[in-house]
Amino acid sequence: MQSLVEESAATEQQTEFNSVISAKRVNVFYGDTQALTNVDLEVPENQITSLIGPSGCGKSTFLRCLNRMNDTVDGCRVEGEILLDGVDIYGPGVDEVLLRARVGMVFQKPNPFPKSIYDNVAYGPRIHGLAANKDELDEMVLTSLEKAGLINEVQNRLHSTGTSLSGGQQQRLCIARALAVQPEIILMDEPCSALDPIATAKVEELIEELKENYSIIIVTHSMQQAARISQKTAFFHLGEVVEVGDTEKIFTSPSDERTQGYITGRFG
Amino acid sequence: MTDTPNDPKASGWYGEKYSANLKKRHKSERLFRRLGLSAILIALGLLGILLFSIVGKGYTAFIQTYITLDITFSESVIDKDGTRDPVKMRSASYGNLVRDALRKEFPEVTQRRDLRALFGLVSKDATQQLRKMIAADPSLIGKTIPVRMLASDDVDMFEKGYISRDVVQDDRRVKDNELEWLDALQADGAISTHFNTRFFTGGDSREPEMAGIWGAMVGSFYTLIVTFLISFPIGVMSAIYLEEFAPKNKLTDIIEVNINNLAAVPSIVFGLLGLAIFLNVAHLPRSAPLVGGMTLALMTLPTIIIASRAAIRAVPDSIRQAALGLGASPQQAAFHHILPLAMPGILTGTIIGLSQALGETAPLLMIGMVAFIADIPGGVFDPATVMPVQIFLWADSPERAFVEKTSGAIMVLLGFLIFMNAIAVVLRKKFERRW
Ligand SMILES: Nc1ncnc2c1ncn2[C@@H]1O[C@H](COP(=O)(O)OP(=O)(O)OP(=O)(O)O)[C@@H](O)[C@H]1O
Ligand SMILES: [Mg+2]
User: Choosing among A30, A116, A123, A182, which should be mutated to test the B contact, i.e. which has the most B CBs within 10 A?
Assistant: First the structure.
C-alpha cells in the first residue's frame, strides 16, 4: 500500500492518504470500442474525490466499474485491477451483489422507487436483513433520512409515495436510500445536474457532512462544485486520466495544458 | 432570404409562401380528423348492427312458454302395488299422467295421429318434472293439482310469433288442429311465458326448450382456468427470463423470432398438436377441459410472452439500476420492482390472450370438445363443451328454436367477455402506480 502511494506521489505531488480504492491499468470496452484506457486512480478514505472532464470521456464508465454496475451492460468488458481494501473486486470469489451493498450509488437522475418514502429507504435494509425487527428498521429509516437532511420535510408523510417529492427532495431520498444500506463508499454520478441552485447547495452540504464517515466519489460537470466540496480531483479526457491530484492544486496550477484548458472553459 | 431579418412582416414567416403552407397544413389536419372520426363511426355502426341483430334475435331465448294442466297423480300409474317403494315409483311412466291430463282437456280427440300431435304440445321434460315432484313429495299421489310444464319448442316458437298462422298448413310446423288446441288452452289461461331460468342453469339438450348454456359456461370456466394456470406463470417467467436474464446472442434471437411466429400460427394447428401429444401420447381424457385448457394454453403463451416482454421493457431502466445499485440481486430487482411495475401491461396481454382462448373453437374440435354433452362438468377431467363450441353446435341444429338459443348464447359469451375485461380493468387500476 505504502509503495503505491509513493509511486503515484512521484508523478503528481499530493498529500499523504490511505486509499480505499485503487484502480490499476483499467481498460473498459463497449463491444469493440474502448471507453477507458489504462486508468490508474487512488481513492482516498473519508474524503471526497471528484471526477471531471468533457462529456463522453468515460467518467460514468469508470464510476460504474467501481461497483460493477458495468456487469449489467451488454457487451461491456473490464480489464485491469480494482482493489477495494486490497481485494480485486473483479477477482474470483467476489460477489458483485454484496459489493454493491458496500459501494453505494446515487444516480444522475433521481430514481426513487414508485413506493412510499418509508419503503424506499427501508428496501436496502430489508433485502440485506440489516434490521432485526420493525423498530430497528424504523430507526434505520429515520436516521438515514436525517443524515440525508430530509427528515424535517418528510416526517409527516413517510407513507406518501417517493415520486411525489420535488426533484431535490427525491435526490436526497435516493441518498438516504443508499445510506440505509450502510455502505463504505458512495458513488455519485452528477447528483446535482437535475437540481436548482438551492437544492444543489443542500445536497452539497450533505455530501460534505457525509465525508466524515464515508469515502465519496462524485462525477460533476460543475468546476465550482468540484472546487467547493472535493479534496481530490481527477481530470478525464478521451478515456484517460490526464491529471489527478489535490483539488486545490488542480484548480490553481494544473500541470497539463488540457486540464488547464478544460477548467478555464476553453473546451469541454 | 432577400428580406431584411429585422422586418418580420417581410420575412418568410409572414410571407405568401408561408400562408399557403399554413392553409395546406390546416386542411390536411382537418381531413385527418374527419377520416379518423368516420373510421370510428363506421366501427361503432358495425358494432351496433351486430349487437342489434344478436339481441333482436336472441332476447326471446331468455323467456320460455309454459302450459299449465291439471295433473292427476293417479296411484294406478305411479304405484300400482301401493308399496310406496321409491325405486319402483321412479321407473313408473309419468308420461301417462300428462297424456291423461291432455285427453281429459280435449276428449274429442281420438285419432291416433291427432293424439300424438296433441301429446306433442308438452315438452318431454314434463315426464322428468313429474317424477321429481313425486320423489320429493310422495303424498301428492292421488291428488289433482295444476302443474306448469314446459311447452314443446314448436309451441314456444308459435307463441313467440316465429310461426305464422297465415302460412299454408303443409309449410307450417304447427298444424291447424294444433292451432285449435292452443287457442283453447290460451282461452283457458293455461299458456304463459316466464323467464327461462333453465337456459342459465341447464346443460345442452336435443330438445331446444330444454337446452341451457350453463354446462358450456362451466366448461369454458374450467378450460380458461387451466389455460390461465398454465400460460400465465410460464409466459410471465419466460418473459422475465428473456428480458432480464438471458444473454443476448444468436440463440435468444432465434427464440424471439420463433415466439413471434408462434403467435401467428393458425389455432387449428395447436389443436392438432394437442391431439397428437395430450390425447395420443399422454392419453389424457378426451373432451375434457384439462386437455382443452392445455391446448389453448399453447396458443395463449406467445401472446402473453410478447405482451409481458413489452411491458417489462417499458419499465424505466433507472428503476432496475436503483435496485441493483442498492445491492439487490437481479432476481430481487425483477420480482420486487420490475414485475410489479410491468403488471398492468402483463395483465392486459393476459386478458387479451384469454379472451382469444375463450372465443376459440377450431383447436377444441380437434380434441373432441365438440361432442354432445348434456351434463354439467364437475371438474377438469369431466367431458365438457365450451361456449363457442356450444354456439357452433346450436347454429348447426335444424330446429327453428335453436336460432334464438344461438343468439342468446352469443349474448352470454359477450357478457362473459365484458366481465373478464372488467376484471382486467380493476386489476390494472390496482397495480397502476403514479410516477
Ligand atoms: N452502454 C454503452 N454502450 C456503448 N458505449 C457506451 C455505453 N456507455 C457509454 N458508452 C461510451 O463510452 C464513452 C464514455 O461514456 P461515459 O458515459 O462514461 O461518459 P461520461 O464521461 O460519463 O459523459 P457525460 O459527462 O456526458 O456523462 C462514450 O464514448 C460513450 O459513447
Ligand atoms: Mg456520465
Answer: A123
